[in-house]
Protein: NAD-dependent malic enzyme
Amino acid sequence: MFDTTAAFVTTGRSGYELLADPQLNKGTAFSETERDAFDLHGLLPPNVSTLDEQVSRRLQALRSFETDLERYAFLRELQDTNETLFYALLVGNLEELLPIVYTPTVGAGCQQFSRLFRKPRGLFLSIPHKARIDRIFAQPRFDAVEAIVVTDGERILGLGDQGAGGMGIPIGKLALYTGCGGLHPATTLPILLDVGTDNSDCLTDPLYVGWRHERVRGQEYDDFVEAFVSAVIKRWPRVLLQWEDFAKNNATRLLERYRDRLCTFNDDVQGTAAVATGTLLAAVNVTGVPLTEQRVAVLGAGSAGCGIASLIRAAMRDAGLSESEATARFYMVDRDGLLVEGMPGLTSFQLPFVQARKAIEGWKLDHPDRIGLLDVVRNARPTVLIGVSGQAGTFSEPVVRAMAECNGRPIIFPLSNPTSRAEATPVDIEAWTEGRALIGVGSPFPPITRGGARFKVDQTNNSYIFPGVGLGALAVGASRVSDGMFMAAAKALASSSAARDNPKHNLLPPVSALREVAAKVAFAVAIQAHQEGLTADVPIDRIDQRIHAKIWTPRYVPYRRKMD
Ligand SMILES: NC(=O)c1ccc[n+]([C@@H]2O[C@H](COP(=O)([O-])OP(=O)(O)OC[C@H]3O[C@@H](n4cnc5c(N)ncnc54)[C@H](O)[C@@H]3O)[C@@H](O)[C@H]2O)c1
Ligand SMILES: O=C(O)C[C@H](O)C(=O)O
Ligand SMILES: [Mn+2]
Structure:
């Protein structure tokens, strides 16, 4: 485990080497003693800054930029120059900086990845270098790695295939593992599996940094992923591996293949499920309609949609419904309309959520051959509407108005990212429901006006879950990440809701509280892992302490010169 409590660091590096290493660099904050010891005089301007002063300097520069993409590039460069300062800035300004480091700006960062490329971060594993994976992992620099986020770049947010540019996502997710979950940055590793791309903009861009090749699929793809996972297990047997932004055909399939082989989860399937379920549990307190009586319409029956349906269904079973009663409460709508039994082309993870033909007999339909979302809302009268389709504007005015007609307090969550892909905007939902909807959005939106005051709409994003899941699982050395651990995370999130005491308050804590949320989620996840026998050696009364010992706070520790 990385020592986050050391009082000082002893190093044999030269002054130049310290300045060049983002994990060790302090820039103008190197003290006089350190400048003496490492011959740093002259390499730095004479004034010694404090970390707080450096944060103010960077914040001022950041705010002077015109666009968020420039801010993103500036922060990425800072992260690659001085990690302590980067995280001090991030942790102290989560609400302002999360939309830049993470969703939505990270989406543009992926699209512009080749143009913004400065220094490499993390690992690019490409098909032509498959035989070298072990050697690449062997670098001593990666000895401390505990958490990996991996993508193959094929479904970057709702922006589709970004090829090697997808690397922006693991970098952004791991910035939250540290910024919110408190994992030491040296223990985190972003990885891009470069299996090519089918994005013609990338393939024809002379500046594209990835492997210029069409996307490899089928057995060759599976063999490459297998080589990757086997090498990960060999190098870091206790690592936490998070799968991120894989396309629909791979996300759930790879999760099922690997979830019993190592401590691993898919954030889009399981992390999203937990944030949606947690927010729904908080909303149930407000609307007064018990979970067992909720009917849930989901637009987009892909990785996130089916993950969400499965965890809410499990919560309904916990609340007393039978499996079939709970299943009947879901209306999954994909490109070809409502998923109904016998429909061609259903995937294995969609099959559990098809509606029975009998259940929809007698529905009044505009086009009987395709049951659209509006048909579903008019006939099934769902209490909850969740969007994970990646399609902007699909929660149209008639759909949202129909939700408002059949519910006193409709629950409406347009969760697709980034902002440009949201199924509806909070302002529109507020207007079309006369302010009665409980709203959750995936990306940050400006506040709406509610009851004459500004109201910040909840950001129902898996950032409320994955940093805590990672922290909790690693703190107790969990061997696996179970569905029960995600249910525990969802319940911990719901229990943090201010709406429990006052229905006018938010369903979720603010983004500025994500560090506290992560610690709370971590505790619930670790306790659950313990109860399921997934942690061999941690006594239950030590769990809280283990979690807190693992939380790194960005600050400088003094360096001493190693004498040879
Ligand atoms: N808020 C969050 O935390 C969060 C988490 C995960 C995913 N998401 C967002 O959800 C979206 C989907 O992610 P995913 O991993 O499930 O992707 P996916 O590709 O697995 O699933 C998307 C599904 O939407 C369907 N679809 C496309 N157009 C449609 C339409 N017009 N009507 C109905 N269905 C349509 C597709 O056929 C597919 O089944 C993305 O935009 C992603 O950013 C948000
Ligand atoms: O990255 C996010 O903001 C959430 C989610 O993982 C997504 O893919 O949209
Ligand atoms: Mn994702």
